[in-house]
Design goal:
By secondary structure, the chain is mainly alpha-helical. It has two helices and no strands. The chain is elongated. The relative contact order is 0.15.
């Protein structure tokens, strides 16, 4: 699903699919996306990769 919205992940998926096949490319892309999500949450970054999806900055409580 993420490869539909992210040019970066689509290029990564296509590159791996050509080398290793679609099954391994799907798993590797999912793992890469999970790493992006983890680092985004851990470092409190604002995710702005997808064109229509943006997170607003959090307010300090």
């Amino acid at each position: 699903m993420a490869i539909r919205y992210s040019k970066y992940l689509r290029a990564f998926y296509d590159r791996l699919k050509a080398k290793k096949g679609s099954g391994k490319a799907i798993i590797a892309t999912a793992r890469k996306l999970l790493g992006i999500i983890y680092n985004t949450l851990k470092n409190k970054w604002v995710f702005e990769d997808f064109a229509n999806y943006k997170l607003a900055p959090q307010c300090a409580l």
